[in-house]
Amino acid sequence: MNKQAFQDYYPEELSHCYGCGKNNHEGHQLKSFWQHLDQQNLRASTTVARCTPNEKYTAIPGFVYGGMIASLIDCHGTGSASAMAYLFQDREIGSLPAMRFVTGALNVSFLAPTPQGVELTLVGQFSEVKERKIIVDITLSANDVICAKGQVIAVLMPDSMVPK
Fold first, then answer.
1. Considering its fold, how many domains does the chain have in total?
2. Parallel/antiparallel/unpaired status of strands 32-36 and 120-129
3. pLDDT digits (tens, 9 = 90+) for 81-104
4. Is residue 146 part of a domain?
5. Which pLDDT tens digit goes with each residue over 73-82?
6. Is 145 part of any domain?
């Protein structure tokens, strides 16, 4: 499997997202990868991202702010959707035209307090894969405890969002 993150394949003009854009040096710089790739059953494939949030993302001392958790789930979901879209269309990731996805809907459930100072692991699974819409179900864990679950309904980025 490729060692390059999905987000690293985004075209330069589409790489400014606060959560995962390589061109946003103030952002989180989240990087997503294939964890398991099943070419025969695409929906059985999984993705993974890891992040240790900075202490400035504090909710209550010792615990990560929920907005940060939602942001990580959001960006891992859209990055995973982009990679899956290339696979679904049997195209090389990063080939043109770009397959960039944006959030159509985001649903996050907080299941346990998320501790600060530890690496968080996000795992994505695909519950729906269509040409213009991909649904990614994501778990966020800390120390092997699932702290949050989210679902990202990712839609193909409309042409109106592409910088001219």
1. 1
2. unpaired
3. 999 999 999 999 999 999 999 999
4. yes
5. 999 999 999 9
6. yes
